[in-house]
Amino acid sequence: MPVHPQNTICWFEIPVSDLDRSVAFYNAVLDTSLKIDTNGPNPMAVFPCEDPATGISGHLYPGTPSETGSTVHLVASDSLDATRKRVEAAGGKAESPDIEIPAGTFFYARDPDGNSIGFFQFAG
């Protein structure tokens, strides 16, 4: 039976070469105030949203910008192991082990065109 989550996209991330410069850029362009968060494996600057429990947001992180653009994280329809197997069977490539953060667990993958995507499973 197909799974239909409330939101297909749950997170996005934008790799940046200079976190402070990029925070200043996005704060100015969006007239907002990104929050620095050091709870995960890397420091990140989180885009605010009205209700973090139901809103979709993302972050900037220090990293090498992808040749194919930013990474969009999609809600896994079931276990990450099953999702990883489907990624490989459908012609994509899983590129990381599971990565645990306070909100849940995810892994990075590439689709058949080389786009960077993450598959996320919420904690709890």
TrEMBL record:
Record's protein name: VOC family protein
Q: Entry's Pfam families?
A: Glyoxalase (PF00903)
What InterPro entries does the database record attribute to this sequence? Anthracycline_SecMetBiosynth (IPR052164), Glyas_Bleomycin-R_OHBP_Dase (IPR029068), Glyas_Fos-R_dOase_dom (IPR004360), VOC_core (IPR037523)
PANTHER family the record matches: GLYOXALASE-RELATED (PTHR33993), VOC DOMAIN-CONTAINING PROTEIN (PTHR33993:SF2)
Organism this protein belongs to = Rhodophyticola porphyridii
Task: Report the domain of life of the source organism.
Answer: Bacteria
Q: Where is the VOC domain?
A: 8-122
